[in-house]
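Researcher: Re-running this chain for the archive, since the previous output was lost when a drive failed. Same request as before.
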Amino acid sequence: MHDFKTVDDIRKACVGNMDGFHWYSDNRPADYEKWCFVYSEYGESVLEESNYTIIYNRLKDKYPDDVIDMYCSHWAVGHINHIAVRAFDENDELTLAMMEVEDIYNEMDRYPILDEGDYTERCMTATLDSLRRYLKDKDRVYDLLNWLDANAKPMDCEYDLYDNDDVGRGMEALGLDVV
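Model: Regenerated structure tokens:
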């Protein structure tokens, strides 16, 4: 997280923030020197995806002209999604959107999950999708999930809630065929 103590800290974080690397995006703002990337999502984490969505929606609902969901790509490294916030207005004053970002950072410092319901739903969807990859009979996914809930210890949710060895034991115990 950024550690913004002063307006100058925010200004330093914004300077060069959008032009310090070579990338492509359709929606780069014309006054990009007043904008700052405040959160990024690489598609590697359920928590990252959940928080990205919650932060973007929260800011966009309150400050629609000061928030951009930026999809950036580079031929060598793929893509990344950024939430860009206008940090300074036309009078070079700090925007309310940027003040809200600092509140969000403080919230995440206290507890990293911004919305338990969204995060839990994403974890369950990712787990079910992962389990379906193993099964020939996709309709038996809930049988396997129930077995895992009763017989295996869940891991932290990052696309696979259960260890592959536990999934294998569950499939064997239930007589399920692998794809």
